[in-house]
Design goal:
This protein is mainly alpha-helical. Among the domains are: 146 residues, Four Helix Bundle (Hemerythrin (Met), subunit A), CATH 1.20.120.330; 179 residues, Beta Polymerase, domain 2; 151 residues, Nucleotidyltransferases  domain 2 (Four Helix Bundle (Hemerythrin (Met), subunit A), Up-down Bundle), CATH 1.20.120.330. Helix content is 59%, strand content 6%. The protein contains 43 helices and 14 strands. The strands form four sheets. Strands 5, 6, 7, 8 and 9 form a five-stranded mixed beta sheet that branches. Helix 17 packs antiparallel against helix 18, helix 30 runs antiparallel to helix 31 and helix 30 runs parallel beside helix 32. The relative contact order is 0.04. The N terminus is likely disordered. Its EC number is 2.7.7.89, 2.7.7.42. GO terms for molecular function: nucleotidyltransferase activity. It catalyses: [glutamine synthetase]-O(4)-(5'-adenylyl)-L-tyrosine + phosphate = [glutamine synthetase]-L-tyrosine + ADP; [glutamine synthetase]-L-tyrosine + ATP = [glutamine synthetase]-O(4)-(5'-adenylyl)-L-tyrosine + diphosphate.
């Protein structure tokens, strides 16, 4: 610091001014001279330093000085002695460039900031704005005020008067930031004043509209009421908001005039003050702008959806014929409080919740004050939903204002008092930030500054009255406070919806929280639980007692109840969670894992609310839960690695029963892992099929080894044995409910006779079948050998020479077709390879199919279609035997293979999809037909898997409707917001196209 003869030389930076021109500008104002402040200007500079942006405030002062000219001296003198004026003006200039522009254009408006704070009641605002357009409240009958000004003259006058009144509100709101001794208005008062100002603007705009449409002297033949909705209706408006309205008029014959007046009012208000939005009217923007009261009532009785009644929570008459407006509100109020009883209420509520969550880009979610996670809309939506649920019987909850309704919910015991207070505080804080952000340029914005926007954070912190705390800058403190409040609101549904349910079922007396069982049932029903009584029993069973386990469940359940409520089957999911929790009650890490790993709880809830297959396995393979925390371990495991682990574990057991038990255990683990990854969208269809087929092959191989050791009892084997996979196992295309189609082939070793070899191999095969098909709680391990020569009447095992002789002399066309999917899967690999080579001439016949054989294949297929489709099944949605389903596509591929595989080696594959690609490459199918068949096969396979996962048992028929269909659609990756009918439409469309190709290629039609 330099020193002059009269003392230390100060820099403008001492007062927060960083602009290089600051010293020159201060000198021009008469507040600075060489070496420091002018006498008497110290207080002015100190106040300037406390402004949200001192540089911006100083530039505004300079512009205002230039605009005032000789009048600057009066303002300068007033600033030096009037603390209130100093605080208000410097706060506005350092916060809002838009209001600074207003002051520069109308410099005498600074006088609004002198003396007591500006009045903020609707009467004062209305009188001022009506006077601006040359109207008086008393002109004519109530609600029929006419302005003398019209057109652009009225718009200009109204705009200037509105901005002046807005300046007064903003100055009173911001002043304590600069002069802490001035009284704070608080969020409630500011939002109320802004709403009252908007009401006054609507009234003045209506007065102009009536004058423009009807004239100054013509009688007004229509009664028109303006109903405020949204934030204006709830008296919680922002500085910059659309104002939502609905119009009602009488009589019906004059609706054309009413519509012209309403349109003119919207135009005038939009040009002068703010946008007026009438989209909340019946039928939205497509509906009539103005309706009669009877017209509104007719619509709401017959057509309105739940969200429209939710919007009516905030309806209040504000302009025009207030008596008609009151009748409108009174007539609709009973419908609002009966909305929770409507059919489809739960679905509408869930759809509204999803819209809130999906309405903001993911990259902005953490910064969006309004729509982001933990934002304002979360609080508003939750409060309104609780009002709809509990306000039916408790009139104390019927407030239009969010903060008032939240307090009433706390007083009534529907929300804990502390929770209501905390959320009210967070809501006010977030609204304060929203107000400050909008004030800067008077533009609609809800975006909090980015973490690295230091200048933006600093300005917003100072504008919101947030100061540094010694260790952190003001911006850092603001960021921490914003995160604290948004994280608090992120627990909104836990706080507002679910924790009271636990208190209700535990019947814990609490002055702060006394939700009754009846109210708890109402709330659960509103959230999508179709059996609230059952849900309450599950909650009580999980949280009863004073054990540590009960305490952890008490902390977990609010979150899980919320997560389950967004699944297709909340009731089934909660029951499954109770089953899993009771089965794993003695597993020490289970609840700790759910508590400490948020991703595990979230994924578990999603799985339990969709699938019965998963919980059935989970109680017997709980270790898979740990994988839910690690996506790579869950979905990225190599199937061959899993198969190798299974074979190694089984090899350690001499007893075949124990060996197969070990194989079942590892298969159970792998099935559950694959199912979880599949349902969570982490594994594609080829990955699912490969994993399921590989684990089946590993189980067969392990069982074959164990059975061989048991039969031999230490002796040398008289034969080599191989297992040949058929059907979907041969094609490596197994689903969750598929059996294992196999054939057993043997060959005597050197020195052994054929009879001994067959007897040994048969004993091994029978033991494999018995061990694997033994009753179990796991998904069945059914080994099907019906595709062997002569079917069930033929020997279970043949030698390789016997198979050659049979197929060479007796094979029928269907057996050649079945052999198209034959591949070695277990046992002696060299023998298996020779078997596969020996049947190539049968399945890939030289010269292709004879016409008689082709007709026989078609005849068999037609008989299968007619006889095997279950009675009552819908052929349009039966995944296996339905039109365009699995059988249609697979038989078509197999017909092409029988015809052409001798000439096109690419067709010599056991895979359906690979066969289609080979047929396309060979020119046997055009690309569109191949794509249609492949799409049909994939759709049917995925749908069949999904139905099995949802129902917990193999099934081929799609559910007709209801929660099972919704769960199948969700399992297939359709969003929660989608109608399950979209999936059915997609399925029908895809399989219909596939069927068209089948009819041309397979049937030759």
């Amino acid at each position: 610091m330099a020193v002059s003869g009269r003392g230390p030389v100060l820099s403008p930076a001492r007062f927060g001014l960083t602009d290089p021109r600051a010293e020159r500008e201060l000198c021009a104002l008469g507040w600075w001279t060489d070496g420091g402040p002018m006498p008497g200007a110290q207080w002015l500079l100190s106040a300037l330093a406390r402004s949200p942006d001192p540089d911006m405030a100083l530039r505004g002062l300079e512009r205002l000085r230039d605009a005032l000219g000789g009048g600057w001296a009066e303002l300068d003198a007033a600033l030096r002695k009037d603390t209130a004026l100093r605080g208000r003006l410097l706060a506005v200039l350092g916060s809002s460039t838009a209001l600074t522009d207003h002051l520069v254009v109308r410099p005498e408006e600074w006088r609004r900031l002198v003396g007591e704070a500006s009045p903020t009641d609707v009467g004062h605002f209305t009188a001022a704005l009506l006077a601006a357009v040359g109207a008086e409240e008393t002109t004519g009958r109530p609600g029929v005020v006419r302005a003398r000004s019209r057109g652009q003259e009225a718009v200009r006058a109204l705009r200037g008067a509105y901005r002046g009144l807005l300046l007064g509100i903003a100055a009173a709101d911001l002043a304590p930031v600069v002069e802490p001794s001035l009284p704070e208005l608080g969020y409630d008062a500011v939002a109320g004043a802004l709403s009252d100002l908007a009401v006054a603007a609507l009234r003045a705009s209506l007065a102009v509209a009536v004058a423009e449409v009807v004239g100054e002297d013509e009688p007004l033949t229509v009664r028109l009421a303006v109903i405020a909705m949204g934030k204006c209706g709830g008296r919680e408006l922002n500085y910059v908001s659309d104002v939502d309205v609905v119009f009602v008029a009488e009589p019906d014959a004059e609706l054309a005039v009413a519509t012209k007046v309403a349109s003119a009012m919207m135009r005038v208000a939009g040009d002068a003050c703010f946008e007026v939005d009438a989209a909340l009217r019946p039928e939205g923007k497509a509906g009539a702008l103005v309706r009669t009261l009877d017209g509104h009532l007719s619509y709401y009785r017959r057509w309105a959806r739940t969200w429209e009644f939710q919007a009516l929570l905030k309806a209040r008459p504000v302009a025009g014929d207030l008596e008609l407006g009151e009748r409108y509100v009174a007539a609709l109020r009973p419908m609002v409080w009966a909305a929770a009883d409507r059919e489809g209420f739960v679905a509408d509520v869930q759809a509204m919740r999803r819209r809130v969550e999906n309405n903001v880009p993911a990259e902005l979610s953490d910064r969006e004050l309004k729509l982001g996670r933990g934002g304002l809309r979360d609080v508003e939506f939750a409060v309104q939903l609780l009002q709809l649920v509990h306000g039916r019987t408790d009139e104390e909850l019927r407030s239009a204002a969010t903060v008032e309704a939240l307090a009433a919910l706390g007083r009534g015991g529907y929300v804990g008092r502390a929770d209501a207070a905390d959320l009210g505080e967070s809501y006010r804080f977030l609204r304060l930030l929203e107000h400050r952000l909008q004030l800067r340029r008077l533009r609609r914005t809800h975006l909090f500054p980015a973490d690295d926007d230091q200048a933006g954070l600093r300005w917003l912190a100072r504008a919101a009255g947030v100061r540094p705390d010694g260790r952190r800058s003001a911006g850092e403190v603001l960021l921490a406070e914003f995160r604290r409040h948004s994280n608090r609101v992120r627990r909104l549904h836990e706080k507002l919806f679910y924790r009271p349910l636990l208190e209700a079922v535990a019947r814990v007396p609490s002055e702060a929280l006394r939700l009754t069982p009846a109210a708890a049932r109402q709330r659960l029903s509103a959230l999508g639980y179709t059996s609230p009584e059952g849900a309450l029993r599950h909650i009580q069973a999980l949280t009863s007692g004073v054990s540590r386990r009960a305490a952890i469940q008490g902390a977990l359940l609010p979150v899980l109840l919320d997560l389950l409520a967004s699944t297709p089957d909340p009731d089934g999911g909660l029951l499954a969670y109770r089953r899993v929790s009771e089965a794993l009650a003695e597993t020490p890490w289970y609840l700790r894992l759910l508590r400490d790993e948020g991703a595990v709880a979230e994924r578990l809830a999603a799985l339990l609310g969709i699938s019965r297959y998963v919980p059935d396995l989970l109680v017997r393979a709980p270790e898979v839960l740990r994988l839910l925390a690690d996506t790579t371990s869950l979905a990225g495991r190599d199937p061959e690695e899993a198969a190798g682990s299974l074979r190694s574990a089984v090899a350690r057991h001499a007893d075949p029963e124990q060996a197969v038990l070990a194989a079942r255990s590892l298969r159970r683990h792998e099935l559950l892992r694959v199912a979880c990854a599949d349902l969570l969208g982490l594994l594609d269809l080829p990955g699912v099929c490969t994993a399921l087929s590989t684990v089946w092959v590993a189980v067969l191989g392990a069982a074959l080894d164990a059975a061989g050791r048991s039969v031999l009892q230490g002796e040398a084997p008289p034969a080599r044995v191989a297992v040949i996979g058929m059907g979907r196992l041969g094609g490596a295309e197994l689903g969750y409910g598929s059996d294992a189609d196999v054939m057993f082939v043997c060959e005597p070793v050197d020195g052994a006779d054929e009879r001994s070899a067959v007897r040994y191999a048969t004993a091994v095969a029978e033991l494999v079948r018995r061990l694997l098909s033994a009753p179990s709680l796991d998904p069945p391990l059914q080994v099907d050998t019906d595709l062997r020569p002569e079917g069930r009447s033929g020997p279970l095992v043949r030698t390789l020479d016997s198979y050659r002789a049979y197929y060479g002399q007796w094979a029928e066309v269907w057996e050649a077709q079945a052999l198209l999917r034959a591949r070695f899967v277990a046992g002696d690999e060299e023998l298996g390879a020779r078997f596969v080579a020996s049947v190539d001439p049968v399945r890939y016949p030289e010269g292709g199919l004879e016409p008689a054989m082709e007709r026989e294949i078609r005849r068999i297929k037609a008989r299968v279609d007619a006889e095997r489709l279950p009675r009552g099944a819908d052929p349009a949605t039966h995944t296996k035997l339905g039109r365009g389903g699995l059988a249609d596509v697979e038989w078509t591929v197999q017909l092409l293979q029988l015809r052409h595989a001798h000439a096109f080696p690419g067709l010599r594959t056991t895979s359906t999809v690979a066969g289609l690609e080979a047929a396309r490459d060979a020119g046997l199918l055009d690309a569109a037909d191949a794509d249609a068949l492949a799409a049909g096969w994939r759709m049917a396979t995925r749908a069949r898997n999904a139905v099995t996962l949802v129902r917990g048992k193999p099934a081929d028929q799609l559910p007709g409707s209801g929660r099972e269909l919704a769960a199948v659609a969700r399992a297939l990756g359709y969003p929660a917001s989608a109608d399950p009918g979209e999936f059915v439409d997609d399925y029908r469309r895809t399989t219909r196209r596939a069927r068209g190709v089948v009819e041309r290629i397979f049937y030759g039609q």
